Amino acid sequence: MTDTDLAIVGSGFGGSMLAMIARRLGYRVMLLERGSHPRFAIGESASPLAGILIEQLADRYDLPRVRPLSAFGTWQRTYPQVACGLKRGFTYFKHETGSRYKADEQRTNQLLVAASPSDELSDTHWLRSDVDQFLVNEAIALGVEYHDLVELDGIEWQPTGHPLLRGTRRGETFRVRAQFVVDASGPRGFLSRSLGIADRGFGGYPATQALFSHFTGVARCDQMEDYDPGLADFDWGFDATPYPVDDAALHHVFDGGWMWVLRFGNGVTSAGVAVEDWLAAEIRLADGEPAWHRLLARYPSVAAQFADARPIRAFTWMPRMAYRADVAAGERWAMLPSAAAFIDPLFSTGIPLTLLGIERLAGLLSDPGVKTRLPRARSAMASDVSPYSALTLADADRTARFIAGTYGGFRDFPVFASYSMFYFAAASFSEMARRLDSPRTPRGFLCGDSDRFTSALRRLSPAGEAGISRDRYASEVATAIEDWNVAGLCDADRRNWYGVDLDDTIRGAEKLGLTRKEVRERLATSLSSPPCAL
Ligand SMILES: Cc1cc2nc3c(=O)[nH]c(=O)nc-3n(C[C@H](O)[C@H](O)[C@H](O)COP(=O)(O)OP(=O)(O)OC[C@H]3O[C@@H](n4cnc5c(N)ncnc54)[C@H](O)[C@@H]3O)c2cc1C
């Protein structure tokens, strides 16, 4: 029997990040992992909000060695051995069954949204086997007690109210008594199963499945005639795309689903599909690799991109993607957002949601009343964590509503592109508000603090019955996001190509509750601040 303050189940990036923060706050921390590092993990594409959250958590909790992971430039310089890829933005191409992709002059079947002004400040794709191993080693170096190959059988509560985890490690009985347990074991994970927590699902959300692997030899779209505007036979009126379309989270969108293509710097590419059940049934997704080829056969330009690609690991089939626990925290336990819910990889929401949850739990752990010893009275604990549970699940519900809307828009790409502006407005506003220390910084994901934003997100969802024409639809979305639009979004003249122009942010100073001078000065400081104190 071992005693600890905080037992964290699961050593993905989320478990290790929280473990490091709790150590910095003075807790005894035990990190328990079923497998062993390095190991494959999915969830690879970061985002601007993820980057600023890493920066802020690293600064707030004195984790200078983690801070370089917040952007591509500092990561490459500091940890070249930890593989990552360049993610300059979000690229979408809409495909029609049986036809090669063909760009049109108005760019109605593509959307490029830059997320950073340069490679230096760019977001990243994380090769999770490398990243998670790096972070677990950092946690160990900070004094976290780490045990891998642990098979937990369950959790029980002692008469004192303390949780007791029991299981085995290499055939030996393993028992840990903790003050508090955090489940960082992913959706349908340890606490969901041992506490019998129901999967509530998301009302109105389509049933979806996934199939994915890692590949070598995936061609770049910007070297393929189908996609490259420079090779097309009309004048685009632009010298270049806002960023190289492949150095991004690249999405191939089609009726009933979409494919992600994420490149790492080591020649490996992560690719997979998320599809509605009806399409999964048509291509018999459960078959794995043969189903992958059946899907490619429907979309010639996607097939051409994968003509020389080779999978370097077995395909993983996920028969059901979305998961939503009925409750995310209780007396002396809490789930990370990634254990409480998962929706879909579209728009890379998993990593920032997890980091937001870590920020909230870190706030609870930092509470002076809690710091000396994790919450003692069971009732106090329950009242402490119920807002965490509610916020975590509200974020998940809002995200699911948004993703359901985008699935509804796949058939009509201009509608999808317009609706996606809710995400891009919220993400860029949240990032900038944090970066510039705005009094209007949203605390919930997708601007969840604003009823106006949330109700517009619901009202204009393509999954619902908006009942308005496509032209008016775009302008309705533009009006709805106006107060959060600090990135020049919804501008028809840009014909679906959005670069990063910091003047848009300066012009949007008032929306951030700041003056233009304040925005200019804080941008200069924030974007040039030294990445770490190494
Ligand atoms: C197909 C797919 C694609 C995704 N793509 C993206 C993306 O591009 N961008 C994004 O932001 N998010 C993405 N996500 C979400 C992302 O995976 C999660 O948000 C992220 O992995 C959460 O990290 P984590 O460390 O909390 O959990 P995980 O990465 O799930 O790690 C959980 C850890 O717990 C361990 N574990 C599990 N059970 C036990 C147990 N019983 N006992 C001990 N240890 C246990 C596991 O071995 C693992 O090490 C994707 C998810 C899926 C399913």
Largest sheet features: 9 strands, mixed
Helical fraction: 25-40%
Q: What distance separates the N and C termini?
A: 38 Å
Shape: globular
Please report the total strand number as a whole number.
Answer: 21
Mean pLDDT score? 92
Q: Roughly what fraction of the amino acids lie in strands?
A: 15-25%
Main structural class: alpha/beta
The bound ligands are: flavin-adenine dinucleotide
Radius of gyration: 23 Å
Structure, described:
With 534 residues, this protein is of the alpha/beta class. It is built from 18 helices and 21 strands. Strands 4, 5, 11, 12, 13, 14, 15, 16 and 21 form a nine-stranded mixed sheet that branches. Strand 9 and strand 10 (172-183) form a beta hairpin. The two termini are 38 Å apart. The structure holds flavin-adenine dinucleotide.
Please outline the helices and strands:
Elements: E1 2-9, H1 13-24, E2 29-32, H2 48-60, H3 72-78, E3 84-87, E4 89-94, E5 110-114, E6 123-126, H4 128-141, E7 145-147, E8 150-157, E9 163-169, E10 172-183, H5 190-194, E11 208-216, E12 249-254, E13 257-263, E14 268-276, H6 277-283, H7 289-298, H8 300-305, E15 310-311, E16 316-318, E17 323-324, E18 329-330, E19 333-335, H9 337-340, E20 341-342, H10 350-366, H11 368-371, H12 378-409, H13 413-419, H14 421-435, H15 451-459, H16 470-481, E21 497-498, H17 502-507, H18 516-528
Parallel strand pairs: 1-2, 1-10, 2-7, 4-12, 5-21, 10-19
Antiparallel strand pairs: 3-6, 4-5, 8-9, 9-10, 11-14, 11-15, 11-16, 12-13, 13-14, 17-20, 18-19
Helix pairs in contact: 1-4, 1-10, 2-10, 2-14, 10-12, 12-13, 13-16, 14-16
The structure holds flavin-adenine dinucleotide.
